[in-house]
């Protein structure tokens, strides 16, 4: 079943059996304005019915194969994937894959063969022996503040990461992070959280779109919600762009009004 409030997703998507081409068209980034493309930041997150963003410290137990298919499609459309360091550590993040199915479209869009992973970190404590640093298709970026420990910055660079300064202290300013990525030519931005990072992106007003999978599960407990940190003064209003359903999982796409 598929439906869309602005016609982006129609019944024919279901008939195309959730093909990668169908999903890629359905989730296409907005056409950039000629001459001065503005960054567009979308988040992709999964939540249970009772609001849990993870189970046993990972999102995989609340996900599903179709969710992962959309996850892969969203990556394939993005220039860069922005992610918090704790998600990298807990989920054992690997570099984004080069996928033959998307090679021609990425080349036509002027994109690298795979999106870069851009990790947000203040402490810069990583295992640089992991594939994210040893064998990415495109160099992994690390976004940090100007006051980050110089020896850790040096270690990151020695490991082949491109360190990008996007804050005056040790932390990253979300607005500067988006600007810095745009200055590197990355305007189709995707964030995969986690909740602590997403909360800051929401609060800073830089999130344009949320792709949210609602998993038909209840986990109780004290798991994080998809966005954490201090609450915003006034709730940010988003509108539903499209909604897909499969096997009880809802795949919503919301855009800020
Ligand atoms: N449901 C979902 O869709 C989903 C998606 C992603 C993750 N998750 C789950 O969420 C959990 C991890 O998320 P999390 O919220 O705890 O952590 P997170 O947001 O992934 O990462 C937090 C870390 O990011 C860095 N960071 C965040 N904001 C920063 C800033 N402004 N400046 C500099 N560094 C900053 C810090 O790294 P340093 O400590 O290195 O300084 C901080 O410790 C995992 O259990 C994961 O499975 C769920």
Topology of helices and strands:
Elements: E1 2-4, H1 11-15, H2 20-26, E2 40-48, H3 65-77, E3 80-84, H4 85-91, H5 100-108, E4 116-120, H6 131-134, E5 141-144, H7 150-158, E6 162-165, H8 174-183, E7 188-191, H9 195-203, E8 209-215, E9 238-246, E10 249-256
Parallel strand pairs: 2-7, 2-8, 3-4, 3-7, 4-5, 5-6
Antiparallel strand pairs: 1-9, 8-10, 9-10
The structure holds NADP nicotinamide-adenine-dinucleotide phosphate.
Unreliable stretches covering 5 or more consecutive residues: 1-13
Give the overall shape: globular
Radius of gyration from the alpha-carbon trace, in angstroms: 18 Å
Strand order of the largest sheet: 1-9-10-8-2-7-3-4-5-6
Descriptive notes:
The protein has a single domain (51-222, 236-256), classed as Dihydrofolate Reductase, subunit A (3-Layer(aba) Sandwich), CATH 3.40.430.10. The chain is globular, with a radius of gyration of 18 Å. Strand 4, helix 6 and strand 5 form a beta-alpha-beta unit. It has 257 residues and is α/β, with parallel strands linked by helices. Mean pLDDT is 93; it is low at 1-13. It has helices spanning 11-15, 20-26, 65-77, 85-91, 100-108, 131-134, 150-158, 174-183, 195-203; strands at 2-4, 40-48, 80-84, 116-120, 141-144, 162-165, 188-191, 209-215, 238-246, 249-256. NADP nicotinamide-adenine-dinucleotide phosphate (NAP) binds at residues 45-46, 53-54, 57-59, 84-87, 90-91, 120-123, 125, 171-172, 192-197, 200, 224, 226, 228.
């Amino acid at each position: 079943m598929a439906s869309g409030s602005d016609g982006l997703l129609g019944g024919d998507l279901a008939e195309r059996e959730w093909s990668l081409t169908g999903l890629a068209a359905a989730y296409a980034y907005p056409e950039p304005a000629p001459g001065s493309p503005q960054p567009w930041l979308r988040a992709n997150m999964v939540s249970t019915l009772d609001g849990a963003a993870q189970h046993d410290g990972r999102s995989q137990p609340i996900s599903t194969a179709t969710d992962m298919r959309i996850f892969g499609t969203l990556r394939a459309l993005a220039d860069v994937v922005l992610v918090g360091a704790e998600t990298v550590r807990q989920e054992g993040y690997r570099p984004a894959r080069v996928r033959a199915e998307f090679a021609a479209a990425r080349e036509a869009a002027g994109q690298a063969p795979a999106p870069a992973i851009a990790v947000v970190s203040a402490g810069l404590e990583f295992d640089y022996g992991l594939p994210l640093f040893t064998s990415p298709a495109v160099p992994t970026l690390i976004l940090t503040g100007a006051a980050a420990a110089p020896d850790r910055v040096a270690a990151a660079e020695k490991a082949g990461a491109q360190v990008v300064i996007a804050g005056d202290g040790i932390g990253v300013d979300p607005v500067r992070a988006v600007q810095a990525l745009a200055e590197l030519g990355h305007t189709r931005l995707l964030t995969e959280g986690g909740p602590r990072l997403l909360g800051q992106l929401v609060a800073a007003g830089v999130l344009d779109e949320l792709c949210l999978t609602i998993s038909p599960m209840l986990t109780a407990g004290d798991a994080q919600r998809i966005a954490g940190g201090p609450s915003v003064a006034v709730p940010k209003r988003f509108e539903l762009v499209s909604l897909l359903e499969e096997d009880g999982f809802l795949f919503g796409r919301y855009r800020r009004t």
